Amino acid sequence: MEYAVYLKFFILCVTLDKKFTNRYIMMKKALIIAAAMAVIPFSLGAQSVKDLIKEKPERAAGNLYHYEAPEKIIDTPAPKGYKPFYISNYTRHGSRYQSGTFEFTRIIPIFEELEKEGLLTETGKQLAKDIQTIYGEHDLMDGVLTLRGGQEQQDIAQRLYDRYPEVFNQPDRDRLFCVSTPVHRVLESLANFTSTVKANAPKLKLTVLAGDRFGDYLCYDKYSRPRSNTTAITDSLKRVYIHPEHFIATMFTDADKAAEIISRPPKPAAPAAGQPQAGGRPGGFQMPAMTPASFMQSVFSAGSICNCLDQNNPDIFHYFTVDELYGMAYCSSVSIYNNYAFSVENQSGRTLTAQLTINDILNKADDAVAGNNRCADLRFGHDTGIGPLLSLMGVEGYDKILSIAKDDMDYWPAFKYLNMCSNLQMIFYKNDSGDVLVKMYRNENETTIPALKTFYGPYYKWTDLRAYLAGKLEGFVNPMLK
């Protein structure tokens, strides 16, 4: 709806009979906010994905991009008489170290060979040193939350508390119930988040459960059922979007000789304790030879984590042009969308994973609405959990099922839709009559489900939202109960 339409409706409300005044004051407030929200996306929409990457190159990191909090959080006031009483959420872990150092152990020996042959330019030598520095920073820290990641979780928790202090200070709802996968970075995220809430509301009683049982319904990969093999599609996109010629010419004194070395089959090497062998993986699996394009991508992938680190984090992205960053980010977003959202090619791949989470949300919300002692149910997991959840729910931005082969995937940049700390917050309100409304935030921005009409502004009647979500469980059989 265009801003002019909001304005005309606002003027109409002002001229209504006085007996409707109280009702329409509430509506006018929502319209003013809605009009402002209509203008904001327009201004952001004027920037292309490439422009956004040029503005902040680290955005090219995609699902490894640190959390970018809203500059301003807009809270549409609830209808008169409704007060918040319960929160249900899912939060991905915060910024972390690389969960594996395979990219480093594969490209570092190649850099060493290139330097021995005298093929590195001064720029190439510096890049090799920077890659080695990042690899060293990962010593015994693979997959662990960084200090930045902890701070991200603390900040999200503080903003949530500041918006809804009354939820966390109810005498009859003094239980904060949290579940987590058993992965270290997720447990650390939970600890940072809940300690911040507890510091603000010390009377809260905290319950924390973590383990594979909870990972089973939050994100577990064993419930992934890819519908089709899309490797041919993603490979063809890489040929269109990834061009290594400039990068190779910048890094190496002889592009042809460098390409020949890069393309050699990797040599097995004695691995460091607990680390994959250079050029291969544990268990005797030998990786195929690289190409100049895949070598550039490996450097890009290894350096994508730099924006999440606290120290020893040289900027690897400055070695690439904006076009190179955009091309690799585009292909990365396609793969992430195909794996964690619902593409045409792989639409049902993670439906069961999302159904398990929705089932948990509904069961716990039903108990809270009926009247228990919980002020919030908090879930902490991974991109493999929240991506499918938002997709099956059809939350704005996740509501379109795109073809990775045919559609313009600039619609879905991973840095915007599946960055570190990606979160869904569902705030429940009720009035004295017991009617319940729900408002949702994605990454702390008010959001809706385009396929489901709201009751007021961004607010849904719980009965409507519950029926819609329950419909997503059609044919659902909980494998955990077998």
Overall pLDDT metric: 88
Radius of gyration: 25 Å
Spatial gap, N to C terminus: 48 Å
Show unreliable segments: 1-44, 272-284
Order of helices and strands: HHHEHHHEHEHHHHHHHEHHEEEEH
Counted by DSSP, the helix tally is: 17
Biggest sheet features: 8 strands, mixed
Total strands: 8
Q: Name the beta content range.
A: 5-15%
Secondary structure category: alpha/beta
Helical content (DSSP H or I, runs of 4+):
40-55%
Inertia-based shape: elongated
Give a written overview of the molecule.
The protein contains 17 helices and 8 strands. With 482 residues, it is an alpha/beta fold. Strands 1, 2, 3, 4, 5, 6, 7 and 8 form an 8-stranded mixed sheet that branches. The two termini are 48 Å apart. Mean pLDDT is 88; it is low at 1-44 and 272-284.
